[in-house]
Amino acid sequence: MSLIIKPVISEKANYLTDLRGAYSFLVQPKANKIQIKNAIEQAYGVKVADVRTMIYAPKVSSKYTKKGLQVGKTNKSKKAIITLVEGEVIDIFAVN
């Protein structure tokens, strides 16, 4: 089971990559910073300088139906922002 779920591709993530060389990834919620750093270094063959993480709470939604109030929620998720050592680059769009 891999700790890295997928890279985050958005305008803000691309801006951080261009500006600071920071890459965003969705990771397993139970992974810690050391595990995330080792997984990125093994997967992409780069040196990681810094790891910042943030946990997103599940989103709750409800709607009224014939059977009454139906409540559901999404899973919680964790995002890691990886800063690489000067001169290192990850090519996220590379086809393997």
Secondary-structure element string: EHEHEEEE
Rg over alpha carbons:
17 Å
Number of helices: 2
Please give the number of β-strands.
Answer: 6
SS content category: alpha+beta
Amount of beta strand: 35-45%
Across the major sheet, the strand order is 1-2-6-3
Helix content: 10-25%
Mean pLDDT: 92
What are the low-pLDDT stretches, counting only 5+ consecutive residues below 50? none
Shape category: elongated
The N- and C-terminal alpha carbons lie at a distance of 20 Å
- Largest sheet composition: 4 strands, antiparallel
Which features characterize this protein?
two-stranded antiparallel ribbon, four-stranded antiparallel beta sheet, 23% helix, 96 residues, alpha+beta
